[in-house]
Amino acid sequence: MRLPGAPAATPPARPTEAERVRSVLAAAHSMTVVIDGVRHEVRDLDGGDVLGRLHLHPAAPRAGQPAPLPLPHDGPPAIRLEFTDIAPTPVRDRVRARVTVLGHLLTPWADGSSAPGTTTCVEYGRAVLETARGTSYIGLEELDGAWPDPLATYEAGMLTHLLDEHPELVTLLLRLVRPLPSAAVLRALPLALDRYGITLRLEERAGHRDVRLPFPSVLDDVDQAGTQIQALLSAARRRSHRNSLPA
């Protein structure tokens, strides 16, 4: 209950839907490409930004539609790019997001047999982001205006290092969680890391909940991550709450 006159709690900052899509595309190691219903598995992305392989073009408006959608037509073949964002740590329900990019091919698909540096031109329809928070649709203007998170390609290594080498720090961060974790929490693991903060997953016997711990300042570069994480840890040490939950 909030006292009269007290300021409302500010929700923790988080990436926009377009930023989330750009980060998934930048960090992806594999994807499924569906061209006119035929599926192709691509596993050689190695964390290279997919948009470095694609040129996205605005879709021509179609009569009777307020916005262009990638519907079947007699022109270029339809293309569907599917990505799954999986947590690098062994949390329950490791799928954090699914991203689908829909459109039509304007040039032949540049697969592994194509010359190095070859790009594919795609008439962009929309991107679909599916997370636990719901489904969002991202247009080309939104996608063009967003940038991948500066930690996107480093996140997996940073989170696994934190969990494998410094599990006690995960327990320490629990002091910042509000409301305080109850005895029902069996395990706490780092789930995600971005320029806005770190997310912990608190697992209970019957389910789980995710908690975002915002950094004091939003990051502009991966080199700033260490300072911001240390700031969170210092704030946690100042809290009087003691927690004995296993990390």
As for the number of domains, it is 2
State the end-to-end distance. Answer: 31 Å
Helix content class: 10-25%
The profile of the biggest β sheet is: 7 strands, mixed
Give the structural class. alpha+beta
Radius of gyration from CA coordinates: 21 Å
What spatial form do the alpha-carbon principal axes imply?
A: elongated
Residue stretches low in confidence (pLDDT < 50, at least 5 long) are 1-8, 64-68
What's the overall average pLDDT, rounded? 87
Helices and strands, in order, run as HEEEEEEEHHHEEEH
Strand percentage lies at 25-35%
Tally of strands? 10
Describe this structure as you would to a colleague.
- By secondary structure, this protein is α+β, with helices and mostly antiparallel strands.
- The chain has two domains: 128 residues; 84 residues, PNP-oxidase-like (Split barrel-like, Alpha-Beta Barrel), CATH 3.20.180.10.
- The protein contains five helices and ten strands.
- The strands form two sheets. Strands 1, 2, 3, 4, 5, 6 and 7 form a seven-stranded mixed beta sheet that branches.
- Strand 9 and strand 10 form a beta hairpin.
- Helix 3 packs across helix 4.
- The longest helix is centred in the C-terminal third of the chain and has 14 residues.
- The protein is elongated, with a radius of gyration of 21 Å.
- The relative contact order is 0.15.
